[in-house]
Amino acid sequence: MTSRAVPLPRWAKLLGVLVLVLVLVFTGLRLMHRLGDVFGTETHDRSGPALLKSVRDLSRYEAASGNFQVVVDLEKDTKYLPDAIRGTRTLYIGAGSVDAYVDLGKIGSGDVRVNDARTSATLKLPHAQLGSPALDTDRSYAVSKQRGLLDRLGDLFSDNPNDEQAVRKLAARHIGEAARDSHLTARAERNTTDMLRGLLRSLGFKDVRVSYES
C-alpha cells in the first residue's frame, strides 16, 4: 500500500516563509553591523557651548545624604505572541542617592527668639524634606537583557532609548521609595540641630533650643 504525503495547510506555509524571511533579514543586518565594526567608526563631538539659563539663590541646608541600590526586573509582554517573538525582560542594578535638607528660607520673623542679653536663642524650623533621587549612571548597569526576535530586529535600526529610560525611571522611583522608608529626614534634623547649636554657641549663646514644626 502506497502512502501519500499530507499537504501542509496554507497558513503553515505562510508562517514558514515569514520565519525564513525574518531569519534572512536578521542575518543580513548582523553582517552589515559587523562590517561597520571591521572598517571602524569615528565619534565626533560637535556639541555647542553650555548656556546659563537661570540663577537661583539656595537657602536650604543639605543635612544628610543616603546611598541606595535596587534591583529592577522589568518585563514587557505582547498578547497572543510568545516571548521568543515579541517581548523584553531587563534585569538592572540601579545605584543612586537621595539628599535630605532643611529649608532655612522658610524661617519667619517669629520663629527666632533671642533674649536681651543675647545668651539664649530659640529657633523653630520646618521639618526636613527629601530631594529628588539622583541615579548614578556610573554605578548602575544592566545585568541581562532578553529580547524577542522582533525586538532584536528593531534594536538594529535604533538604540531603543525608551526601554533604557523606562528602567532608569523605575530604578529612581524605587530609590525614592526606599529613602522615604528610611530615617533620613530624622538624621537630617539632628544634623541641622547640631550645626545651629555649634554655630550659635561659637557666637556667645549659651542656651540654644531648636524645635521643628508640628
Automatic annotation (TrEMBL):
Q: Where are the transmembrane segments?
A: 12-32
Q: Which keywords appear in this protein's UniProt record, sorted alphabetically? A: Membrane, Transmembrane, Transmembrane helix
Q: Name one Pfam family in it.
A: DUF4230
Name of the protein: DUF4230 domain-containing protein
